[in-house]
Write a structure and sequence with these properties.
The complex is a heterodimer of chains A (83) and B (423). Chain A has 83 residues and is mostly helical. Chain A is built from 5 helices and no strands. The radius of gyration of chain A is 12 Å and the shape is globular. The model of chain A has no long low-confidence stretch (mean pLDDT 94). Helices cover 34% and strands 19% of the residues of chain B. Chain B is built from 15 helices and 15 strands. In chain B, the strands form 3 sheets. In chain B, strands 1, 2, 5, 6, 7, 8, 9, 10, 11, 14 and 15 form an 11-stranded mixed sheet that branches. Chain B has a two-stranded antiparallel sheet with strand order 3-4. Chains A and B meet through helix 3 of A and loops of B. Chain B: Residues 2-421 form the Ketosynthase family 3 (KS3) domain. Chain B: It catalyses: a fatty acyl-[ACP] + malonyl-[ACP] + H(+) = a 3-oxoacyl-[ACP] + holo-[ACP] + CO2; (3Z)-decenoyl-[ACP] + malonyl-[ACP] + H(+) = 3-oxo-(5Z)-dodecenoyl-[ACP] + holo-[ACP] + CO2.
Chain lengths: 83, 423
């Protein structure tokens, strides 16, 4: 999967946790989940669980802590999928 | 401080009507909300019927809670509570979009068990060594104060926020506490009420106690029969009731519509002594509670026009009517009118007191007495206490000024409220 493929899929994972759906249109690798998408920090846990199930991977606590921007999310997902 | 307290908004999720207009119509028509539930037959319960609100879950999304909050909300009791509470708040003409906390406005909202279906998900996951997959939304929905947390967060309520739990007395007790906070000057506005979702696990436990109706499984609408000879146990119900209480001056200053006034009330416990047990009321406790409520409200026993009874359709109905007779010193033709909303919607447990209070206030506002349905075979023991014409089986148009609403719950806990027409 290319980074763009993952980004497109990731948008679907993020959608239920974003009240203002228009914010999703501008998602790129620099997008910060909390600041730009106004996602509640508690929901990061749910996003990780959803990502685990979507990509059939396991994301440990240390990796999860890095997942604050879209680029970081893609890094972690790509890395885990390669394992 | 001794403020007057009035009701300026109401909301309801009842088995026979969701929303005040539908509920009022159902009360006046004597409409049953009891239905057959195939699952209960499959599960080999002895009672196969229940009072379940015709609730459209998706309607919560957007109008009541944000998309994100809606996504992942599983607690049915919480959904009922949010809907009733926000409807009451809007009915009172209050804003649901507040940037700053409303420091003058608080909440007392009652609840029984948090959703046990949600809890089952926790148990299964944990037992399967999958605790990590539970996610962030489980704690808030399995905690008993979940419903209060959702409502207060949605509206930005900043005064005291309390979740009470006292079995069948929960709803009346919540309203009493909210009333007392305003009366004593702690808040000017209190949103109050209670909710209940009788899921299969809670239902099964009551079924096992053999206190549920089981002889009318094929005729659901006839299954809830308070005060009748064939009353054979209660029918569980689910739902929520809510009201906005306001200090009179505050309500008048903003030109609010006033439904009725809360004159006062009392709550106590029979101590599980003198015949009182976990499940049966100490007669002295009940009588004291009613008398204390009258004293607190400055109401004479002969001024009570209508008793909105607890009256669940068990052997306790006759005892309850007798307690009222003793407390008010009124019998036979001198007895106040008495009705049981449970004949239409069953026993909504923690939500009973709030839904029945909403019904009591609507009867005051609209000047009618709703019927006791399914009372074609009234128990002669009942009419020895209260004159038969005091137990209406059709809707009566009546000038009523004061309604006493009481609930009596497990743990020998009692609560009684007195509502009056606002003058």
């Amino acid at each position: 999967m290319t980074r763009q493929d993952i980004l497109d899929e990731l948008k679907k994972v993020l959608a239920p946790y974003t009240n203002d759906k228009t914010l999703l249109e501008g998602v790129n690798e620099q997008t910060d989940l909390l600041k730009d998408l106004k996602i509640n920090s508690a929901n990061l846990v749910d996003i990780i669980i959803d990502a685990e199930s979507k990509y059939n991977i396991e994301i440990d606590y240390d990796a999860a802590e890095k997942m604050t921007t879209v680029a970081n999310c893609i890094d972690v997902i790509q890395e885990r999928m390669a394992q | 401080m001794n403020k007057r307290v009035v009701i300026t908004g109401m909301g309801v999720v009842s088995p026979n009507g969701v929303g005040i207009p539908a509920f009022l119509e159902a009360l006046q028509a004597g409409k049953s909300g009891i239905e057959f539930v195939p699952l209960y037959e499959e599960l080999k319960f002895s009672c196969h019927v229940a009072g379940r609100p015709d609730f459209v879950w998706e309607e919560l999304q957007g109008n009541y809670i944000s998309d994100v909050t809606f996504y992942g909300l599983k607690g049915t009791n919480i959904g009922y509570g949010i809907r009733a509470a926000l409807d009451a708040w809007r009915d009172a003409g209050l804003s649901t979009d507040n940037d700053e906390p409303l420091w003058h406005a608080g909440l007392v909202f009652g609840n029984s068990t948090a959703d046990t279906e949600a809890m089952r998900n926790v148990i299964t996951r944990v037992d399967n060594k999958e605790a990590k997959k539970l996610g962030s939304r489980v704690v808030e929905q399995t905690m008993n104060s979940g419903v209060s947390a959702y409502i207060s967060g949605r509206l930005g309520l900043g005064n005291r926020i309390i979740t009470n739990s006292s079995a069948c007395a929960t709803g009346s007790q919540a309203i009493l506490m909210a009333y007392e906070y305003i009366k004593n000057g702690y808040a000017t506005t209190m949103l109050t009420g209670s909710c209940e979702h009788v899921d299969t696990y809670v239902y099964g436990a009551f079924d096992s106690m053999r206190v549920l109706s089981r002889k009318f499984n094929n005729e659901p609408e006839r299954a809830s029969r308070p005060m009748s000879l064939t009353a054979g146990g209660f029918v569980p119900g689910s739902g929520a009731g809510a009201m906005v209480l306001e200090e009179l001056e505050t309500a008048l200053a903003r030109g609010a519509t006033i439904y009725a006034e809360v004159l006062g009330g009392a709550t106590n416990n029979g101590g599980q002594r003198q015949g009182g047990t976990m499940t049966a009321a100490n007669p002295q406790g009940v009588i004291r509670c009613i008398n204390d409520a009258l004293t607190s409200s400055n109401v004479q026993a002969d001024q009570v026009d209508l008793i909105s009874g607890h009256l669940t359709a068990t052997y306790a109905d006759k005892a309850e009517l007798n307690y009222w007779a003793t407390a008010l010193n009124r019998r036979g033709d001198n007895y106040p009118y008495v009705n049981s909303l449970k004949s239409m919607i069953g026993h909504c447990l923690s939500a009973a007191g709030s839904i029945e209070s909403v019904a009591a206030v609507l009867q005051l506002k609209e000047q009618f007495i709703h019927p006791n349905i399914n009372l074609e075979d009234i128990d002669p023991g009942v009419t020895e206490i209260a004159g038969i014409e005091k137990i209406p089986v059709t809707t009566l148009k009546k000038d009523i000024n004061i309604v006493a609403k009481a609930n009596f719950g497990f743990g020998d806990v009692n609560a009684c409220l007195l509502f009056s027409k606002y003058k």
